[in-house]
Every structure is written in structure tokens, then in C-alpha cells.
Amino acid sequence: MLSNAFAEAEPRARADRLQRASPAGGALVALLLGGGSARSLAVYRINRTCIVRGFVLGVLLVGGHIGWSRAMAACSERPGTLSIYVGHIGETHQVAMTVNFPDAQTIEAVYFDPTKRENTRLSGPLLPGDRFELVERSAKGAPRVFAGAFASPNPRSTSSHPGCSVLAGTFSDPNTHLSADFSLREIGSWYSAAQSLDHRYQKIGATDDRIVESGAQAFVDAVARGDKRAVADRIKFPVQVHFGSEQRSISDSSAFLDLYDEVFTSSFVEKIKVSRPYHMPIAWHGLAFLDPGLVFFDSSGRAVIINNAAARK
Question: Which residue, of 166, 199, 232, is where some domain finishes?
């Protein structure tokens, strides 16, 4: 009997020692040896749950890190791809920015300040943790800086690289002591053979980006003033016009002016007035356009498609 008692006690003692070192492991051994109590079963179940949850959490964290590393790599491995981002600095200050990744360690950009109607060049390093720092070039005084990161992907993005679709961080201007959050979303991207931010509209055949954007700006300004003849002067005829359920090709300014009020409804005019005739996306057929497809411009900055239907989106 003594030998039997010892035979039963020794495995349980080993199980107790293991349980003190690893509660889940000890409880499991006790159960397997047939000497486990209800307490052993409870300890095993509780600790098994903790282990499983810890394992799952670790997988998610590692997977997330790998996913973001891949997303960052996807962004920087697109040399020659120009991406347009739009959004705000602070609550109300609109900004548009075109971004390029010349190599795996560098990010460069041009951003347009609509209050000054001027472009500013930026460049800087890509940093660990999906971060970047864009510093103003040739600054008068202390340079302005966009310091941020590739934030959570924009759920509405149609980008083939969704991890690159949102830029967010802090904008600082030491000269005015301004510091404010910024958030920009990608609205379009395309390949540029020139791989240069100085020739963003090369794909539509433009030799000078300023011609495209100044022409688009003149069109928007004329619509905002209600100057019908000035609007007609900014159109290349024949022009394709979409309004209501109709689609027409209008051959000259006289026919266009006859239809002006039907095309330029109050809601359409309001959409155009708040659009961005700078850093415009490029459509698949090689035309720059006012987002979300209100008016399309050719390389001379003249309107070739007017799409009233987009105002209802």
C-alpha cells in the first residue's frame, strides 16, 4: 500500500512543482495524470484562455507591423508615380499636394497654398515607423515643415496602394508661430515618365504646368463672376456638354451661350466655385479635371468637357 500511495503521490508532486512554475502546464499535467482536482481544471482553463489570447494578439501585432512595413515599401517603391493629396491644415485652411518618391529613403512634394496662389517645393527623409518629414526648400526665413505619417488607410480610397492613401501629422511655420494638425487624402495617382514634380501634367501633353492651371483658374473665376463670354473664351470647341439627361457636342460659342443657363445651374456653379483648379488629377483619357469630374481641361488649360451631371454626386 505504501508503494501504491508513493506511486500516486510522486506524479502529483511533479505536477504541483510544474504548476507553480507554469500554472497552465501544471494543471494540464495533473489532469492527464488523472489526479487533477476541479481547481486544477479551472486553473488550466483560465490560463489556456490567456495563452491563446496572448498568441492571437501577438500574431495581430506582428501581422500589422508587417502589413504597414509592406505598405510603406509599396509607397516608396513607386518611382515616377505622382500622387495628389487634398485636405486641410487645421480646420479650414485648404491645401493640395503632389507627392513623389524618388527613391526608398526620400519623399518630395509640391504643395499649393490657395490663399497665396503659389506652389512650394518640399523634400525630406522617409523615417522608421511609416513617418516622413517634408521641409520647405529655398525658404525665406525658417522653413515650414510637414511632419507626419502614413495614417490608417482611407476606406473610400480607390488607390492600388491603400496604405499610402492618407497623410496626417503636424504642420509648423516658425515664422508665424503656427502649429496645426493636417490631414490629406489621396485622390489620384499616375505614372510620369519625367519623374518630376515640375512637369505634373506631362501625361496630357503639357510643356508648362502653369499654363494648365492658370487656364483652369481663369475658367473657374469666370464662372464665379457669372461672366458668360469669358467662360466661352476658356473653352476649346467643339466641347462635350453633359446636363440633365442630355449629352451634346457644341460647335461654337454662340450655341454654347444659348445653352449656358441650362448647363450652369446654381448647384453646378457652386460646385465649380469651391473646386481646386490646381494639382488636378488626370483622367484615363489624358485630361486634367476639377474633382470629382466637373470640368476637363486639355494641355492649353481650355475646357473640352463640361459635366453638369457630376454636380449631383
Answer: 199
